[in-house]
Design goal:
This protein has about 280 residues and is an alpha/beta fold. It is about 35% helix and about 20% strand. Helix 2 crosses helix 3.
Amino acid sequence: MVKTDKEDIYIRTKDFLVSNEEFYLVPNSEYGFLETHPQPAADVLEKYYESEQYISHTDSKKGVVSFLYQVVKKYSLRKKLRLVSKLNSGEKTILDIGAGTGEFLKLAFDQGWKVSGVEPNKKARTFAKSKKIALVSSMEEIEDRKFDVVTLWHVLEHLPDLETALEKIEGFLKPNGTLVIAVPNFNSFDANYYKKFWAAYDVPRHLWHFSRESMHKLFSPKLELQEIRPMVFDAFYVSLLSEKYKTKRSFSLKALWIGWRSNWKARRTREYSSLIYCYNKKN
């Protein structure tokens, strides 16, 4: 990736979840996304995920925000699988990268898909195994296998060595295969409102921060962007966390108001808090 200078700093923020360390985000002029600086070395990065509050690696329902997250997740999982099924024109083979506790793959498996998944976090893999979903720890373990569908649900922003990761992801797809990627959008209203407190910056776990513009530029011409879909619940969840970081309150009606405003404004601008990008691999 193109390196940038500190003079180009977009915003300064910090790790509100684990370390309280400060980081800054700088624009990448080639692709139009933001990069987290400094980026922890790969062998150090794991410690920033060591928190019971990092609920994508657990099935926790403790606390109001976690409970709401789990309730909405069940609905969202079904909606995600309906989208994937609609887009798929091949056999029902799917690879989920960053599979977390395996709930999406469990739902897909129950509906007749042949499932595979990657999840680096050992604790999350253990949760998945309890659901009879076996996950591998890295993309290297997938080797040369090809899939009809590859999904990354809020995962691309976590992957070190982005260029290499993008090549591998593209290589996992069969001709005419479908790639579905969900990422936060730093051009959303809630991002601009909360600024350094915006929870979806989530440094340093999020190494890259994407916009609609950057998601048009990332992949090779072999991958054609077919459609972009909103994730409307994300505005509420992210605003609840952002308000918590800003005010220390565990629940806030104001956060729900900001989430609603973000979605309302995005009806015109299309700049939702999170977006799903659907690509097709040309033959």
